Amino acid sequence: MPIFASVQSAWLAPFLPAAAAFAGGMACLLAAGRRPRRWERAEGVVVESRVEPRGSEFAPVITFEFEAGGERRRGTALRDFPVTCELAETAADWTRRHPPGLRVGVHFPENDPARACLLPGGKDGLRRGLLALSALFFAFAVLLGINAL
Fold it and tell me: Is the pLDDT of residue 97 over 80?
């Protein structure tokens, strides 16, 4: 009986942190994926596009106007998190894709139009990275568990 208990705990031990990492990654994906659906959408227009240096990186700054709650508003957020690029050319690509006069969809929380952005949805790269890391931990734990048997 003690041999079974040690094999069982050796087999199960790697799964606990891997399962927690996988569950955490999935929870982040699900939570971030649902968030934009609760946001309002309005039609807007780009009024200015420029690139600004931010330390050693560059930020595409897209200024747009839209109407929310009966008021005309302005925003500059491309995403619902700060966007910076390592290369000025990459930031300039964003500004070329959003020239002044372009009609755009503006997304904002119902009770907070000051948080308006053009491309909602969270940090896609971070979410994908968390999922990949979670899956890697889980696969590693499965291999350790199989080898423990």
Answer: yes
